Amino acid sequence: MNEAIHPLARKTVVWHLAVTSLVLILMMIFGVIMLMNQGEMISITPQWFYKIMTAHGTGMVGIAALGGTAILWYFLSKYVKLNPAILIVNFVLFLTGVSMVLIAIFVFDFSDGWTFLYPLPAQSAKMYGAAGAVFFLSGMLILGIGFLLLYMYLAARLTAVYGGLGKALGWDIIFRGKKGYGPPAAVVATAMVIITNSTALLAGATVLAASLVNIINPAITIDPLLAKHFTYAFGHIFANCTIYMAVIAVYEVLSEYTKRPWKANKVFLIAWNCSTLFTLMIYTHHLLMDFAVPKWLLIIGQVFSYANGLPVMVVTAYGALMIVYRSRMKWDFASSLFFLSMFGWVAGAIPAIIDATIVVNHVMHNTKWVPGHFHTYMGMGVVAMIIGFMYYFNKTEGNQEHRGIDTFTIALYFVFFMGLVGSFLYAGGISAPRRWSEHLPQWVLSDQVGAVSGIFIVLAAIIFTARFFSGLRCVGSQVPYQKKSAAG
Amino acid sequence: MYQQIAMYTTVFFVFLLALAFASVYGESKRSGEYSTIQEKGYKIRKFYFLGLIAIMAFATVMTLGRLPYDSNQAEAEGLNEGIVVKVTGIQYAWEMSEETFKAGDKVQFDVTASDVTHGFGLYNENMELVAQTQAMPGYTNTVYYTFKEPGTYQILCLEYCSAGHHVMVKEIVVEPEGGASDE
Question: Would you say residue A480 lies in a domain?
């Protein structure tokens, strides 16, 4: 079971990564503009601030999903024969959806945030015209359909090869006492993402369709609290799944670099099954301040948000530390970023878990503490994994080599990312609200620290991207094709 | 108080995490038999796992008795005998049935919205967030707060509600117990 990735799929993976890296830079620039405005270093109108905020949120989650998909497809292809047409369809629908979202924001002034909290789009449609909301919601729907088709196909393939999603998650070993190891980590993670993200996308499609219908015919409504459940069942799970897709690269690449196996033993499989269940359950921590929600459901939000930290802290991150420990691993761009990405993931989980505590959430919900924790695990976790994979791809599919500038860029990125998330968390600690275009004087210093940190992060991202594109020139130049080992 | 606890706890645990990663990085330059490392690692992991469970259980026990929406607690503290204030969020203002209070007043804010979802965030004079709940059309969320100190408090919108979100601020005055301030 060591299939080679289809040449067309390899090209499509390159397209995924190219779009991811370019959009990443643009979205980072948007982030810096927002911080500079809050920090009174520049001045833009509130309308522009909120448009940029909507583009930044949608774009960042979108490219994290796109980059994560590239990683998932690339490594899953080692174990399961996959039809590249599905990846291409996903890519085309992604671009179509993104184009519609951009038209909504920058042509029709849509600025209701990437969470489009019902009934805000309908209200905005009354004031600014329906075109913006209709383009945005339809664009998100198309984007979601693209991912749903991908997961349906992957579910069919895993069922054909492994006998079902349950078996792909190792239920034979967990529940039926089968001896040995489960399927490869890439398969286990894919099964988890199929289950959770398909649920998320169905929830998202429901609220998107309901919002569209409500705009077209305001007499047809949906309960706002039910709509919020759907919105966060979609948004929370979809954003989380970007990590669960990207972490496949950590399992595969660290194992290759250290020349040590990272097998799916029983504890590993239990952890991934718990992640599957908990990820589906804990979106309610976004509703902790909706007092109308039954209390037991909110307590579940707290308790299982704590529990959801355990699989990554006790199994995945701990496993990464164990596999690297005394391994004499070669430290280069990819291995460094994958190692650091595990730090970023867990470091972000810590303030996230604290925020899921109801009494803390009562005084920190929707302050900058929230972007503080998710920027930690998205920026230093998922994005680090995707950038690490870009280098790994160029190294093994081409001949890219680690240079001094790569060490410098990784240090630049992580040092200033710590500065950025530190400024966010501090601002949350002094009660600065998130999503405010203008800030009070006592919050401005933290915004300025964040903005300056952001400028250096953008610089690092530009260097990463330039190195990726320069390395692409040699990808696929070997005839006949032969993938190299990354371990060196 | 909770803000400080959150910040110090985060710094403490992220520091420990950084130490663990730095230590493994340092050790990565040496070589060792992986089966031996795994054997020892799995033993340590049991204690690490139990330690995390203990921390999480402690935090759960310490916090679940103090839920802000717990009417039992409010009754125990006599908050239900306080002033009832109707609050409605509307783009971009807060409508309130009462706007002036006295220090010591126990207030029950019944919060809703008439257009889109807003966030009712109560800030004290030091601009520290002291209580919040969501203001959602069709629902009334009740949040309790006792004004212990006089001063100018502010209500900020904490749920994004479109282009005027940041101007959705209302000042409320809490006078000293027994009369208005001389200032």
Answer: no
Residue B182's pLDDT band (cuts 50, 70, 90) = very low
Q: For chain A, what is the domain count?
A: 1
Whether the CB-CB separation of A212 and A138 falls below 8 Å is answered with yes
**Contact status of A303 with chain B (Cβ, < 8 Å):** yes
B180 pLDDT higher than 60: no
Q: Is A164 on the interface with B (CB under 8 A)?
A: no
Q: What are residue B108's phi and psi, to 5 degrees?
A: -110, 110
Region B86-94 average pLDDT: 97
In this predicted structure, what is the pLDDT of residue B80? 57
Contacts of residue A303 in chain B, CB cutoff 8 Å? 60
Mean pLDDT rounded to a whole number for chain A: 95
Give the amino acid at A5. Answer: I
Inter-chain CB proximity B64 and A358 less than 8 Å:
yes
List of long-range contacts for A51-54, beta carbons under 8 Å, 24+ apart? A51/A105, A51/A106, A51/A109, A51/A110, A51/A111, A53/A111, A53/A113, A53/A435, A53/A437, A54/A105, A54/A110, A54/A111, A54/A112, A54/A113, A54/A114, A54/A136
Q: Tell me if chain B has a CB within 8 Å of the CB of A296.
A: no
Interface touch B63/A347, C-beta < 8 Å: no
Which residue from A224, A340, A362 is facing B131, i.e. has the nearest CB?
A: A362
Query: How many other CB atoms sit within 10 Å of the CB of residue A399?
Result: 14
Residue B177: predicted pLDDT: 83
Nearest Cα of chain B lies from the Cα of A5 at a distance, in angstroms, of 30
Chain A nearest C-alpha distance from B15 (Å): 9
A487 in a structural domain: no
**Is residue A481 included in any domain, yes or no?**
no
Q: Give the integer Cα–Cα distance in Å for A388 and A339.
A: 10
Secondary-structure breakdown of chain B: helix, strand, coil percentages, each rounded to the nearest 5: 40, 30, 30
Q: Do A120 and B162 touch (CB under 8 A)?
A: yes
Predicted confidence (pLDDT) per residue in A247-299, tens digit: 999 999 999 999 999 999 999 999 999 999 999 999 999 999 999 999 999 99
Cβ-proximal residues to A71 (8 Å cutoff; 6+ apart), any chain: A245, A246, A248, A249, A385, A386, A389
Mean pLDDT (chain B, rounded): 91
What ipTM was reported for this prediction?
0.93
Structure tokens at A91: 């890519």
Confidence of residue B181 (pLDDT cuts 50, 70, 90): very low
The encoded tokens of residue A219 equal: 């007499």
Does A124 map to a domain?
yes
CB-based contact A168:A191 (threshold 8 Å): yes
- Cα separation of A89 and A383, whole Å? 24
User: What is the average pLDDT across B140-157?
Assistant: 95
Residue A56, domain extent: 7-472
Residue of A48, A127, A363 for testing the chain B interface, max B β-carbons within 10 Å: A363
Residues of chain A with pLDDT under 70: 1-3, 477-482, 488
CB-based contact, A257 to chain B, within 8 Å: no
Q: Answer for the pair B53, A306: CB distance below 8 angstroms, yes or no.
A: no
CATH of the domain at A357: 1.20.210.10
Q: Print burial letters for A151-178: b (CB count within 10 Å at least 16), e (below 16).
A: bebbbebbbeebeebbbbbbbbbbeeee
**Taking 80 as the threshold, does the pLDDT of residue B179 lie above it?**
no
